[in-house]
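Lab notebook: predicted structure, single chain.

Context: the supervisor wants predicted structures on file for every construct in the current expression panel, including those that have not yet been purified. This is the next one on the list. No modifications to the sequence; it matches the entry in the shared construct table.
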Amino acid sequence: MSRIAHRFLRPGLLLLLAGMVGCPLVSPPRLSVSPLAISLGATAVEAAFRINNTQSGTLRWQVHEAPEWLYFTQRVDDVNVRITEGTTTREVDVVTVHAVRENAPTGLLNGEVVIASNGGTAAIRVSMEVASPASLSVAPTEIDFGISQTAATLTITNTGSQTLDWSVAIPPAAAAWLAVAPSSGRLGQGEQEVRLDINRTGLTAATYQTDITLTSNGGNATVHVRMEMPRRVLEVSPQTLDFGTTGVERSFEVTNGGTETLTWHVDTDDFPAYVSVAPDSGETAAETDTVIVSIDRDALPFAPGTNNQVSFTVLSDDDAGTAIVSLHIAVGAFALEPAALDFGSVDTSQTFTLTNNGTTAFTWTATEQSDWITQVTPSGTTPAGATSDITVTVSRAGLAPGNYQAVVDLTVGSQTEAFPVAMTVPAPPALVVTPSVLDFRASLDDKVIALWNSGTGTVAWSIDTAVLPTWLALTPAAGTAQAGETITGTLTGDETASIRVSINPVGLSPSTITTAIDIAATDADGAPIDSRSVTVRITVPARPVLGVDTGVTPGVVALGEDTTQGLISLRNLGTGTLDWSIDTSTFPAWLTIGPQPLAGAIETT
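Prediction complete. Output recorded below exactly as produced.
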């Protein structure tokens, strides 16, 4: 057996080697597709995938399965050719997927493109969203406002996924009494509310109706609107009056929604003895009648710690309507006296009283609701009919000046009352001086400065006049005193002090001179507070002075018996420019003067 095997084995081995050396092995084609998922979204119309032969030979492929909303093309000689199959060796086939959105089912579509080949099979997942067209739906299609309703809501719905563009048109004849807001809009898939408002002002008694038209790119709709303008309509507001645990008076208003005079009255049959109304009847055309409702808490039949409701009816003549007014009356398990605490600007501790209105003892708690309420009696037990004092302490430390309000919550069982607490943080004393600048320019008229305290407490102020220039003088006026060279005063509350300021520029050279009046200030304890300063500015103008020199005798030119000429010298003895002239109109005929012209200007120098 071994020899036979050997004989057959050697030729087989030689054949195998010859095949390996002279004839290379050929591997079959293999299909490769990429990508394996394509999303066309809501707007894309095409995408592409690639088919590749990753091994040897010729790959023959075809689109074996595909959704009916897709077709395929391939670029051949720069022309897109519709295809369902192809072949490739080593090149890459690029296949374009085209979406057919027209007549496709709306919504999210998912499908598979199966590529079958002699080198395997591949599946490409393809998804596409097909938007549904805009579609208008309106509800309700009829709205009746009746005799008193003034507003209603219309709901616009877009049942499609494309944007709905809509608008509302009101007939011109109805525009005087009907308004729509908004009157147009854009709406994606969903709902939008439109408000309709009725205005009966100025209308005569009648029935009014119209059709409003809604137009859109998703269809049109009509809504019928109807309302009545009655001759008279009873309107009462508010119809619920809450007296709480302490209230004794509330009010409601009666108005006429019609065009003719309304007669109304309160039905007082079986009226509670502890309730009174004033007035209990009246007539109104366009005016408003205010009705005061009062309750006598001492006559209330309700137990402490209860919430109660009673009601009465307001009637009208000629079937103009009725209205029920409800009174909510609570009887507290306890009462607080006084109604509030006001610490003003000085107090830091005050007390209020809690009274047990019931027939059994109760336990209470008090809780402050502000950081500046630093302490409050936290809790206690009050016997029936007895009282408890509750102390509240406040602190103004670190607070800015101003008025502060807060509450202390008092709780007994299920009843909680917010007890008001007020406090003022006063402004510190502060000196105010006005004006801050005194500008005398070329005027010598006196001026006045005023001083006052813009805060609280006392401001003590002083001015040292010894440091002021000699041309400046201060005269104490209202609210001031002077000791030596110091002017002083105090300011409290609304007091105002004043100081008169005078100047004397004689002897000063022409110029603008500035100085300051410094005013020091302290509080009532002598602690310094912000000082103030007033700037004083004067302008010293140039002042020319004419000087005439006639020789020996001032003011006289003596010619004697033989002299025929005399000399006059003109000088500027002041500052600035001196303009001079000589009037010869009154000269005697025998007197002449020269040289001409008899006018000129002389500078200071």
